[in-house]
Amino acid sequence: MNQISWLAVPTDDRAHEGVRKLWNKAEANMGFVPNVFRAQALNGEQFLAWWNYFNLLVNKPGELSNIERELMAVVVSGLNRCVYCAVSHGAALREYGMDAQQADTVAVNWRHARLSAREAALCAYAEKLTLHPAQMTEADLNPLREAGLDDAGILEAVQVIGMFNMTNRVSSALGFVPNAEYHGQKR
């Protein structure tokens, strides 16, 4: 296996039992194990705690659609220049139905993509919270409300944005490499 992290990556026989179960489930569902699952497995309990929260925010029904969550993930990851997350969540955007050209445009500059008013409001909010968190004000919620989000939707957006900012920092700090499978997904 090629290097996927600047840290050691446990082998199957040395990984936490719960992590191995997740790897097997990913392999069965996706046809591969995301490198982020392997790269964070060195501390199995912490990885599983992260995964449970990540999975709750990103993969379960909530106030936001899957495309909206992945859209914010790509915007945040692009702004943070996180290669792993921009590539993997760009693939997820395509999986959920965004055409490849639009998904690629979002990754570079969301303002040039054809987005709904709600999607654009989420992207603008994600951008400000990522780049200028100390400058956030109550007034920043108005465009989200005008776009149809209620308080539960706004909270979910903030949690997703926060999760991706944290995950981007972990991935970038440790040199996580995206799986080759992501690059060709839905193209």
From TrEMBL:
InterPro entries associated with the record: AhpD-like (IPR029032), AhpD_core (IPR004675), CMD-like (IPR003779), Uncharacterised_peroxidase-rel (IPR010195)
GO molecular function: peroxidase activity
Pfam families, per database record: CMD
Protein's UniProt keywords contain Membrane: no
Keyword annotations from UniProtKB, A to Z: Oxidoreductase, Peroxidase
Superkingdom as given in the UniProt entry: Bacteria
Ranges in a coiled coil: none
Residue ranges annotated for the Carboxymuconolactone decarboxylase-like domain, each copy included: 46-127
PANTHER family attached to this UniProt entry: CARBOXYMUCONOLACTONE DECARBOXYLASE-LIKE DOMAIN-CONTAINING PROTEIN, SI:CH211-175M2.5
Protein name: Peroxidase-related enzyme
